[in-house]
Specification:
The protein is an alpha+beta fold and 625 residues long. The protein has five domains: 4-57, no CATH class; 71-212, 3-Layer(aba) Sandwich (Rossmann fold), CATH 3.40.50; 256-336, Phosphorylase Kinase, domain 1; 368-395 and 425-556, Transferase(Phosphotransferase), domain 1 (Orthogonal Bundle); 568-618, no CATH class. It is built from 21 helices and 20 strands. β11 (269-272) and β12 form a beta hairpin. α3 crosses α5 (85-99) and α6 packs antiparallel against α8 (154-165).
Length: 625
């Protein structure tokens, strides 16, 4: 009876390359031993794949629900004949019923089906199965046929219908036809057609909807922003214009400012910064009034675009409406009031964590990472890139409550994010003028990975290493100082950082190493892990911690005080001892006892911390937690 299976055999059975299976195992947190999987690990892999499948279905159903609520849905002939159309209806039917909506079929599509029944016998069986389903849906009010009975050209009628009704309601057309998709999206660019934007999706193999990608977008990286959103696709770059607006009288606490809904009175000032002053409006919102030199045409026009679309994401302080003075001069904008402490202040040092969140464990930090990733993912689905992922602009209340502020700097449409921080800037755009180009999802993916690394090793930049070289140059060189598998490094920062790194799951270390090391699997703009991929990895990490499936108990601590233990003997206590240097108690494990006995050495008389301190002092280094 076999108790293990070789990786090569498992890959063959799953019909994938070995490298693909290794990547999959890493994402699932499974660490093979000597290129083999145990039966328990095979079961763990199957369970992880099933969990990912269910999670993917959940997200797809939530996306379908959002689309059904946001759009009027139209469908063309080729999507009606798609093999997964009945499955789409199965997913869509309760949503249509709940929202009192129907799937719209232009009448020309019905005529086209009749013609295909005569001209293409190979489709006859599929059409005969489709027609009763359409009749049933129509009787239930879930499908409506629009247009005259004499319409023969389905695509042309679809364009006519969309052009006519896009002025009244947001439309989503479901089609598998590339040419029709391109024609529909071009309607968004026509100056003669004013109204809502048209979105285009297609039925995927799972019976859900995927956004149509142009050939240019299909050539982009896997990190591309997904899902129809009010700011996607991006418009051409809006050049940075420093043209200032006419001078005006700036309001103070107690003064009235104008909105589209009427006048509001400024409350007490809450904060002052380089861009302006934040005033409490005492209704759960605040006003940001810009300084004179920050009131530019570019800023006003960008905020006008942002406030033209309702982006409602819990914890994201999106601009709600513009603010003006009595003479119509632009002053700033209104947004939801945030709470919490800056991530930079409360979670990036041990002392800060012990002050603000003394009860936190590793699981809390992983949950915090998931919460932040979920908000970034929601913005990406709207076509928004954060651009400058700055820990000072992330406020933390708890692992499950986070606020993103200073959203006016985000990249929307053709308006770039004009600012950036060296440690969060991808190698390919180091030393660039941020206001002069539009960041790509691949650029953003580097910043996301950096933030996650600094959450797992609180406050430590991925490229902060011994030697003190210029950080921007180190990032461009992509010399990642942490070891992974067979890859070693002589530049790993000394002290507790090594312990923190060693306790991360193997797949998490591989993800970070693959991202930050030149030549790594995810190290280029086109191959970096997406926010959704990181979400899957960190949700699984959280599950491992919740179910206590990590081998070493210290892996659940925020700051473990030793290397990760993989030998079971090292988890058993051989002897309790007291450190002769600091006086603190420590344990000598069975594994240590065996090692010292095999090498005819005396058992240690100092605790691990004092031993490490002496070792560092001998090397001329200081120990820092």
């Amino acid at each position: 009876m076999f108790h293990t299976i070789q990786i090569s055999q498992a890959a063959g059975a799953m019909k994938m390359e070995e490298s693909q299976l290794w990547s999959l195992l890493g994402q699932c947190g499974i660490q093979p031993v000597e290129d083999s999987l145990t039966l328990e690990q095979v079961w763990q892999l199957a369970q992880a794949l099933e969990d990912r499948k269910q999670e993917s279905q959940r997200r797809s159903q939530e996306k379908l629900e959002r689309l059904t609520e946001q759009y009027t849905l139209l469908i063309d002939t080729c999507s009606l004949l798609h093999p997964q159309f009945p499955l789409l209806i199965e997913h869509l039917e309760p949503l249509l019923r709940g929202k009192g909506k129907a799937l719209i079929v232009p009448s020309g599509m019905v005529a086209e089906l009749r013609n295909l029944l005569l001209k293409k016998p190979e489709l006859a069986e599929r059409i005969r199965a489709l027609l009763p389903l359409m009749v049933q849906l129509r009787q239930q009010g879930l499908l409506r046929v629009f247009g005259g009975q004499n319409e023969d050209f389905g695509d042309q009628q679809m364009l006519t219908v969309v052009t006519r009704f896009m002025t009244a309601a947001p439309l989503l057309v479901i089609t598998q036809d590339n040419d029709l998709s391109a024609d529909l999206l071009r309607l968004n660019q026509l100056g003669s057609v004013r109204g809502q934007k048209v979105a285009v999706s297609r039925i995927n193999r799972y019976g859900y909807l995927s956004r149509y990608l142009t050939p240019e977008q299909r050539g982009m990286s896997s990190s591309s922003v997904s899902g129809p959103g009010p700011f996607f696709p991006s418009a051409p770059l809006v050049e940075d214009r420093e043209e200032r607006l006419p001078a005006c009288q700036f309001p103070q606490t107690g003064d009235l400012v104008r909105t589209n809904q009427g006048d509001i009175r400024l409350g007490p000032a809450l904060a002052k910064g380089g861009e302006g002053t934040i005033y409490d409006l005492e209704d759960g919102t605040v006003a940001k009034i810009y300084r004179e030199e920050k009131r530019t045409v570019l800023r006003r026009d960008k905020l006008a675009l942002m406030t033209s679309q309702s982006v409602s994401i819990p914890g994201v302080c999106w601009p709600r409406e513009l603010l003006w003075d009595g003479a119509g001069n632009f002053l700033g904008y209104r947004m939801e009031r945030a709470r919490g402490t800056e991530l930079q202040k409360c979670a990036f040092t041990r002392q800060a964590l012990e002050r603000y969140f003394p009860e936190w464990k590793k699981l809390d930090m992983v949950h915090l990472a998931v919460t932040i990733l979920e908000k970034i993912s929601a913005l990406h689905r709207c076509g928004v890139l954060l651009g400058d992922i700055n820990p000072r602009n992330i406020l933390v209340v708890s692992p499950e409550e986070v606020w993103l502020v200073d959203c006016d700097s985000y990249q929307v449409g053709g308006y770039p994010c004009p600012v950036g921080t060296v440690r969060f800037t991808a190698p390919e755009i180091q030393h660039c003028r941020f206001s002069g180009f539009l960041r790509t999802p691949g650029n953003e993916a580097f910043a996301v990975a950096t933030l996650l690394f600094m959450l797992m090793l609180p406050g430590k930049s991925p490229y902060a290493q011994q030697g003190g070289e210029d950080l921007g140059e180190v990032i461009r060189e992509m010399n990642f100082p942490y070891p992974c598998g067979e890859n070693r490094s002589d530049h790993t920062p000394a002290g507790a950082w090594r312990f923190l790194w060693s306790h991360l799951p193997r797949y998490t270390k591989e993800n970070f190493y693959g991202t930050f090391q030149r030549g790594g699997r995810y190290s280029t703009e086109q191959t970096r892990l997406t926010v959704e991929q990181w979400l899957t990895a960190f949700r699984y990490y959280g599950k491992l911690l919740e179910e206590n499936k990590l081998q070493d108990p210290q892996s659940g601590e925020l700051f473990p005080d030793r290397w990760k233990i993989t030998d079971p003997d090292d988890l058993l206590v051989y002897q309790h001892a007291v450190c002769q240097e600091c006086g603190k108690p420590f344990d000598i494990t069975e594994g240590e006892h065996k090692f010292y006995r095999q090498h005819d050495l005396t058992l240690p008389r100092r605790c691990p911390s004092c031993r490490n301190l002496r070792k560092l002092e001998r090397n001329g280094l200081s120990f820092s937690a």
